Amino acid sequence: MENVAIEQYLPIGLMFLFALGFVVVTMVATHLLGPKRKSKVKLEAFECGIESKGNARIPFNIKYFLVAILFVLFDVEVIFMYPWAVNFKHLGLMGFVEMVTFMALLLVGFFYLLKKGALKWEE
C-alpha cells in the first residue's frame, strides 16, 4: 500500500524537479552567456525609471504600509471564498452558514477599521 502512495506523488515530484532544473539552467546560462559590460551607470540602483536621490532610509507616512497590509489581509480572506463557491452545492446548508459567519466577521473587521479611521489619508 505504501508504494501506491509514493507512485501517486511521482508526477508532482518530476514536475518540481523539471521546474527547478529549468530555473537553474536558465540562471547559469544567462550568467555565462550574457554580456559582462559593467559601467557606473549600469551599477546604479534603478527604480521605475526614476533616478535615485539621497538616502533610501528616509521616513515615510505609515498609512502606505497600513493600507498595503490591510489590502493583503482582506485579499487573502477573499481568496477563501473561491473554493467555497466552487463547492457550494456539496457543502450544503452548513457550508452556507459557515461562509455567512466568515463574511460577517470580515465585515465587522472592515467596519472597525473604518471607524478607527485606518483608511483616511487626512487627519
From TrEMBL:
One of its GO terms (molecular function) is NADH dehydrogenase (quinone) (non-electrogenic) activity. Its main location: membrane. GO terms for cellular component: NADH dehydrogenase complex; plasma membrane. NDH-1 is composed of 14 different subunits. Subunits NuoA, H, J, K, L, M, N constitute the membrane sector of the complex. This is NADH-quinone oxidoreductase subunit A. Belongs to the complex I subunit 3 family. The chain crosses the membrane at residues 12-33, 64-85, 91-114. It catalyses: a quinone + NADH + 5 H(+)(in) = a quinol + NAD(+) + 4 H(+)(out). Keywords: Cell membrane, Membrane, NAD, Oxidoreductase, Quinone, Translocase, Transmembrane, Transmembrane helix, Transport. It holds the Pfam family Oxidored_q4. It is a multi-pass membrane protein. NDH-1 shuttles electrons from NADH, via FMN and iron-sulfur (Fe-S) centers, to quinones in the respiratory chain. The immediate electron acceptor for the enzyme in this species is believed to be a menaquinone. Couples the redox reaction to proton translocation (for every two electrons transferred, four hydrogen ions are translocated across the cytoplasmic membrane), and thus conserves the redox energy in a proton gradient. Its EC number is 7.1.1.-. It is found in: Cell membrane; Membrane. It comes from Dawidia cretensis. InterPro entries: NAD(P)H_OxRDtase_bac/plastid (IPR023043), NADH_UbQ/plastoQ_OxRdtase_su3 (IPR000440), NDAH_ubi_oxred_su3_sf (IPR038430). It comes from the Bacteria.
